[in-house]
Amino acid sequence: MINTNDFLNFLDTLSAGFDIRGDVVDTTELINNKHFITIDTCYTNDTGRYETGIKIDSDEWIIVESYPNRASAVIGHDEWIKRCNTLPIELLNIQDGEIYIYE
Q1: Nearest to 23 by CA among 71, 90, 75
Q2: Could you tell me if residue 75 is left (phi over 0), alpha (psi between -120 and 50 degrees) or otherwise beta?
Q3: Can you give the pTM of this predicted structure?
């Protein structure tokens, strides 16, 4: 059962416009042959973990990796930059298990 103060704090958070992004590790934009790619790694307040999301062209964000700490997120971000520099790009959405392939 939630206590009254916790519930009121929750309502304050909602009314203030809860920002899902916390500490930003890095945001990288690159063009790979024919795709415009944005790679964003940050702490996400909704999951309490660092995550890398990738957006290709005007498609939706795909969350591709989750990390327990900032140091792991920095390494992961750099790895995703390397992976997105060559085609084909295969992304597994860790939220729903769907695979996206960009050629």
Answers
A1: 71
A2: alpha
A3: 0.80
Lookup result for tokens 């989750």: 66
CB atoms within 10 A of CB 89: 18
* Token pair recorded at residue 73: 């997120």
* The two three-digit tokens of residue 17, written as one number: 């416009």
- Cα atoms in the 13 Å half-sphere on the side-chain side of 62: 21
pLDDT per residue rounded down to tens, the chain (103 residues): 556 656 655 555 554 455 778 889 999 999 988 899 999 999 998 889 999 999 999 999 999 999 999 999 999 999 999 999 989 999 999 999 999 999 9
